[in-house]
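User: For my dataset I need records formatted as: sequence, then structure tokens, nothing else. Please produce one.
Assistant:
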Amino acid sequence: MEPRERPPEDILPAYFFECWVPEAVAADDDRRRRLGDTEATVRFTLKGEGGGVFTLEIAEGRVRGREGDASDPDLAVELEVATWRDLNAGRISAPE
């Protein structure tokens, strides 16, 4: 399996959630297949300079992203912007 494309190191969080993630999923049959029948809303709170609150909505093998809070998310993730960037770059894994 080829390594998946990673977002640019300097990507803005809003662009990442609103455009990059939905486009990456739409372009990757394996990612869509792995989502299957998953229906979930995930809220990400990125703390620190350049952060904010972002929501990903997963349904029907697609992901939609937007800036702003989810009223009742299935999962809430809170992390520092620097940690989020390290995750995107592959320097750390989610369990870390």
